[in-house]
């Protein structure tokens, strides 16, 4: 189970984990993790995991070196 909490700041390992989870959903038929706070849509035959976010005013300062929004 994965929960997305309002106000959470994602970056680094957490963002890569979320991307890997989305990849697993597409690679493994029937894999349907319980994702609280997110929704799944299909585009061009590929499932994409989405959530609503609020971008802070100074978003660049919370990113790790080399990461981009």
From TrEMBL:
The gene it comes from is speC_2
Supply the name of the protein.
Ornithine decarboxylase
Pfam families listed in its UniProt record: OKR_DC_1_C
Q: Where is the Orn/Lys/Arg decarboxylase C-terminal domain?
A: 2-42
**Catalytic activity, EC:** 4.1.1.17
Q: Report the domain of life of the source organism.
A: Bacteria
Question: Upper lineage ranks?
Answer: Bacteria, Pseudomonadati, Pseudomonadota, Gammaproteobacteria, Enterobacterales
Q: Does the keyword Lyase apply?
A: yes
Report a single Gene Ontology molecular function. ornithine decarboxylase activity
Assigned keywords, A-Z? Lyase
Q: Which GO terms describe its cellular component?
A: cytosol
Q: Which GO terms describe its biological process?
A: amino acid metabolic process
């Amino acid at each position: 189970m994965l929960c997305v909490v309002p106000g959470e700041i994602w970056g680094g390992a957490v963002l890569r984990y979320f991307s890997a989870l989305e990849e697993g959903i597409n690679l493994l038929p029937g894999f349907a993790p319980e994702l609280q706070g997110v929704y799944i849509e299909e585009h061009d035959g590929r499932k994409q995991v989405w959530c609503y976010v609020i971008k802070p005013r100074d978003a660049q300062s919370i990113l790790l070196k080399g990461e981009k929004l």
